[in-house]
Write a structure and sequence with these properties.
Distance between the termini: 25 Å
CATH topology of the domain at 1-113 and 317-373: Rossmann fold
CATH architecture of the domain at 1-113 and 317-373: 3-Layer(aba) Sandwich
CATH class of the domain at 1-113 and 317-373: Alpha Beta
Number of helices: 9
Number of strands: 15
Strand content: 15-25%
Radius of gyration: 22 Å
Order of helices and strands: EEEHEEEEEHHHHEHHEEHEHEEE
CATH superfamily of the domain at 1-113 and 317-373: P-loop containing nucleotide triphosphate hydrolases
Shape: globular
Helix content: 40-55%
Length: about 375
């Protein structure tokens, strides 16, 4: 799988750009603030329907414009697919596949798959649990796009339930009956999401351990442990939605008084965490800067391998990563990703990019992109 062409209209600092890309490494070199990351951000947006840099769409639209358009031509098994999305802040985005409108943008999910390395990835190790939850859920969606619907339904139920908890007051009988109905929905959808996360971690852990051994000069054992918001007992040994939903439902009943007092849902996948360990210690708070970087990179490399096992090579994106790494990690990472079908690299200076990733080069200057011959 690779992106053969990228077209932008009023995306970030680009009024218009048409760019032809090739399989193998494609390297965008430019000073910070000139727009090199905006190019790979646009490609990632069509793959995930979200940005790795901002939580909302408004910053993606060029100042003074009403909407932005991102279009990519994806080649998969020698067949082309043209994906397009029109980003309009404050309104529903519109999407097209092969120039035909689709009913919902999420119908594009799964056609283009990317794995992104970026400086923000350090938050996977050092940041709050929401970064690690998002990592798991985005990987679930990349492997099985139907989980985008599961996530949206869960978040909708969670918002409704939190609103009810905040307004329940003295917990009248009618409010409690309504709350019980939302409990059932939350437990059912939460059980499905939780079961998928647990199965994912089981597949991911050996791949992360292998990637860490390849990236880092140290040989500390890597562990991935799931910390749930309630006691799951032995259900985690063979996790299924049918087995986990009753556990969540029981925990919701047990903590109902506390939830009513605090006005927030305290049980469910939205409260869980992925605990990363190195040796006998948790990585967060104990790992060095280099170890943290190696672990973050290992999570992405493991994601790439998992998606490869499912079928096609995803497009690898390395956004300003090499400047953050020492020479040894730089070379090891480049050697690991160079065989990918397509690698997109951004860098402030050409010297930061290892020779193993020499390929097509582009200069990015003040919102213009010029191939280097």
């Amino acid at each position: 799988m690779y992106v053969a062409r990228l077209s932008l209209t009023d995306f970030r600092n680009y009024p218009s750009v048409e760019l032809t890309l090739s399989p193998g490494p494609n390297v965008f070199v430019g000073q910070n603030g000139h727009g090199k990351t905006n190019l790979v951000e646009a490609i990632g947006y069509l793959a995930t329907l979200g940005s790795h840099r901002v939580a909302h769409d408004a910053p993606l639209v060029r100042h003074g414009a009403e909407r932005a358009i991102v279009r990519v031509d994806v080649v998969r098994d020698n067949r082309h697919a043209l994906l397009e999305i029109e980003i309009t802040p404050g309104r529903s985005n519109r999407a097209r596949l092969n120039r035909s409108p689709v009913s919902r943008p999420r119908e594009l999910l799964g056609i283009l798959r990317t794995v992104l390395f970026a400086p923000e990835d350090l938050a996977l190790v050092k940041g709050d649990p929401d970064a690690r939850r998002r990592f798991l859920d985005e990987l679930l969606v990349a492997r099985a796009p139907r989980f985008a619907g599961v996530r949206q339904d869960y978040e909708r139920v969670l918002r409704q339930r939190n609103t009810l908890l905040k307004t329940a007051g003295q917990a009248s009988s009618s409010a409690l009956r309504t709350l019980e109905a939302w409990d059932e929905h939350l437990a059912r959808l939460g059980g499905e999401l939780l079961a998928a996360r647990l199965r994912l971690i089981e597949e991911l852990e050996p791949l992360v351990a292998q990637a860490y051994a390849n990236v880092s000069p140290t040989k500390d054992e890597v562990r991935l442990d799931y910390r749930a918001s309630c006691d799951l007992g032995d259900v985690t040994e063979q996790p299924t939605a049918q087995a986990l939903a009753p556990r969540l439902a029981e925990a919701l009943v047990e903590r109902r008084d506390e939830e009513l007092r605090r006005g927030v849902s305290l049980v469910g996948p939205h409260r869980d965490d992925l605990v990363l360990g190195l040796g006998d210690l948790p990585a967060k708070g104990y790992a060095s800067h280099g170890e943290s970087w190696s672990l973050a990179l290992s999570l992405r490399l493991a994601s790439y391998e998992l998606l490869r096992h499912d079928g096609d090579d995803p497009v690898l994106v390395l956004d300003d990563v090499f400047a953050e790494l020492d020479t040894g990690r730089r070379s090891r990472l480049a050697g690991l990703v160079a065989p990918a079908e397509q690698v997109l690299v951004t860098a402030a200076v050409r010297e930061d990019v290892p020779d193993a990733l020499a390929g097509a080069w582009y200069d990015v200057v003040d919102g213009s992109v010029r191939p280097v011959v």
